[in-house]
From TrEMBL:
Lineage: Eukaryota, Fungi, Dikarya, Ascomycota, Pezizomycotina
Protein's recorded name: Uncharacterized protein
GO biological process: carbohydrate metabolic process
Domain of life: Eukaryota
CDD domains recorded: GH31_N
Signal peptide positions on this chain: none
Any GO molecular function: carbohydrate binding
Length: 206
């Protein structure tokens, strides 16, 4: 189910909630949780310990199915296939987030280029080019034993083979371009992990 407000988009299904809202100029904050009651007011700040003002409200476009198709009266059957709902979009600054009715999220820059896209390998949408029987979701929550928290594996894929990813902190390794690498986000005597990455395409992920 897609829910839109004057400043956010929310997708909920099977106890999984995804919320997209603006966070400062030309930036989006994306929340993912298995708590279906997730909302901006209830979400913890985590790494964002300082308030960031949003001077200009985002532009949100959310088309409901009833807006483009008339459902048959009760007791009648309509054999015509229902049209597909277009993704809901939230535009803030140079970024546009598109959230499909099935919960697929993509973020595009001012030129309309995706940067990057979620890596779904499931059969939730059998018509999607990425449909697969592997059943590997882009957002995978694993419970942490004896706690109310989860480990989240968030999978993204780049559509530009020339893209390079930098950042992540300081590690004892000779690799500069981290694209395709696997890093341990933990503080140790020989490494300093900073979970911020910058792309050669001009965007960053925290």
């Amino acid at each position: 189910m897609l829910i839109s407000t004057d400043r956010s988009l929310t997708f909920t299904a099977d106890g999984h909630t995804l919320l997209v809202e603006p966070h400062g100029p030309h930036a989006l904050r994306i929340h993912a949780s298995v708590n279906p009651l997730l909302s901006p007011s209830e979400s913890k700040p985590w790494a964002f310990t300082e308030e960031v003002a949003v001077d200009t409200p985002p532009v949100i476009n959310c088309t409901k199915l009833d807006d483009q198709h008339t459902l048959p009266p009760p007791g009648q059957v309509n054999l015509e296939p229902l049209p597909l709902c277009p993704p809901a979009t939230l535009t803030h600054g140079n970024l546009t987030a598109a959230l499909s009715p099935l919960g697929y999220l993509s973020v595009h820059n001012a030129e309309g280029r995706p940067i990057p896209i979620e890596k779904h390998r499931t059969r939730i949408d059998p018509m999607a080019p990425s449909a697969s029987a592997l059943e590997i979701p882009a957002r995978d929550f694993t419970p942490i034993t004896a706690s109310n928290y989860y480990n989240l594996s968030y999978r993204l894929e780049s559509l530009d083979p020339e893209e390079k990813i930098y950042g992540g902190g300081q590690y004892q390794q000779p690799i500069l371009n981290l694209k395709g690498s696997e890093l341990e986000l933990a503080q140790r005597n020989s490494q300093a992990s900073v979970p911020f990455f910058v792309s050669s395409l001009g965007y960053g992920i925290l």
